[in-house]
Amino acid sequence: MAIQQLDTPERVNRSSAPEITLSGIGKRYGASTVLRDITLSVAPGEIHGIMGENGAGKSTLLKILGGAIGADSGVVKLDDREVKITEPRDAIAQGISLISQELALIPGLSVLENVFLGRWANTGSLLRSGRDADHLERLLAQTGFELDPRAMAGDLPIGQQQQVEILKALARGAKVLCMDEPTAVLNEAEKAKLLKVIRSLARLGTTVILVSHYLEEVLGLVDRVTILRDGQHITTEAASRHTPESLVGLMVGREVDFLLPEVPPVPSEAKTVVQVAGLSSSRVKDVSFTVRQGEILGIAGLVGSGRSETLLAMFGADRTTSGYVRINGRRLRANSIREAIKAGMALVPESRKEQGLVMSRPVDENIALSTLSGRSLGGFVRVAREKAAVSEISHSVDLRGARRGSLIGDLSGGNQQKALFAKWLLNPPAVLLVDEPTRGVDIAAKARIHGMIADLAAKGTAVVVVSSELEEVIGLSHRIHVMRQGRIVAEFDRNASRDEVMTSAFLK
Amino acid sequence: MTTVTVAVSKPAQKKFKLNVRDFGIVFGLIAIMLLLTLNTGTFLTGRNFINLFDQAAIVGLLAAAATLCIVSGVFDLSSTANLAVSAIAGVMITQHLGVIAGFVGALVVGGALGTVTGLIVVGTKVNSFIGTLAVSIIYRGLAIVITGGAIVAPLPEQLASFQTWTWPSLFGLTAGSVLMVAMTIVLGIVLWRTTFGRRIYAVGGNKEAARLSGIRTGSIHVAVFAISGLCSAMAGMILASRAGSAQPAMALGVELTAIAAVVIGGTSILGGHGAMWRAFVGVMILTVIGNGFNLLHWDTTYQQVVTGVLILLAVAADGLFFRKRAG
Question: I need a surface site. Which of A10, A105, B151, B303 has the fewest CB within 10 A?
Answer without folding.
Answer: A10
